[in-house]
Amino acid sequence: MFVAVLVIAVLATGGVTFFLFRSKNGSIKTWVQFFTKGKEAGFSLKEIILLRRLAIKNDLADPTSLFWSQNQLDSCIKNMVRTSRLTVKTDPATRDFLSKLYDYRKKIEIENPKTKHGLTSSRQVEEGQFLRILLELNGRTAFQSKLLKNSGQNLIITMPTSPDLPPDFSWIGQKMSVYFWRKDDAGYVFDSTVQEEVFTKGVPSLRVSHAHSFVRTQKRRSIRIKTHKAAFLYILHGDEISHHIETSPGYKCFVEDLSDSGCAVLIGGKAVEGLRIKVQFMLNGLPVCFSGMVRSLELKDEEKTSLLHVEADPMPVETRNHILGEVFGMLPKEDDELAFQILNEEFAGESEGGEEGAAETETGEAEITEMGEIGEMGEIGASAAPDKTL
After folding, report:
1. Each residue of 202-229: b (16+ CB within 10 Å) or e?
2. Domain boundaries, the chain
3. Higher pLDDT among residues 42 and 388, named by residue
4. Which CATH number does 123-219 carry?
5. In angstroms, rounded to a whole number, what is the distance separating the alpha carbons of residues 125 and 187?
6. Could you tell me the pTM of the whole model?
7. Percent of the chain whose predicted confidence (pLDDT) is above 70
8. CATH of domain 225-379
């Protein structure tokens, strides 16, 4: 009896396999290989069947190339987004499947051999790399610097400046920790000692030693793209996570880079690390909004602006898919500034007739400027944040 049941099960499994993978687009052997590759990549049987349909629809000569070719996978995802119109809300199963495809697409790019291998020595750091210097000075003090020259004997970096430094402060002999993020790779940290103060091409600089130890700290978890999108920034209070779309303007800013794990935001004025904010902007004709924390910032004194590096809170799947669609170039291009122009005009109209004017919000906090300018935020921080309620 047991043998009979086993034989029937084997025949049934073989029949299902034959039914699923028989196709004019490939032999049974090809589709068995496709199934095996799909399982190795972590997809379920149902998802592999959907992938098979995508491979057939895109007429792939080698269906298994979908699991290792970035271009072939991009073509299939674009086809799926286009035909299903997945730039708007859809059924949860399809939404989650697209999210899994994006995760796999990201994995392929991150594990690309061209970018997988990291640095092993400070002698490999490229000139022009921006650096973050930490110095033990009445508690840890952070500075910004830039690598000007890298030789076999030492490094020459721009001299960090800060109003916190005593007038008679000398850099010579100071021990410091140097942090930097290598694009498309990871974060690094090493310890160094200042050998002397010098001038390099007329720029006050420091000659520092190469690293005694060189550590790769955090590998990249996401793919970022450069952008320059008009956006509104809102101050959050406490640890609240907010994804709802705002209907009134916030601080005017620009999103300078974007990923599913955060963004870089250019503001007028200053901010502080640890500040919780929400960013809202248009992405291919649809509003996108997510909250997060300012993890680091770059002050640009000449322009009186700051670039905030924001780590996003966990995003809704729809928001994350939409951002990844932009990152990987899956979405059509739209005029994303139009909605901000309309919002500003509507708000300015409401402010006429005895109001304070169109340059301020109802609480008088955010300056609403013309498109292409940045709203001045002044100096804000967790303790000095405006009382605007979101």
Report:
1. eeebbbbbbbeebeeeeebeebbeebeb
2. 2-114, 123-219, 225-379
3. 42
4. 2.30.110.10
5. 12
6. 0.62
7. 71
8. 2.40.10.220
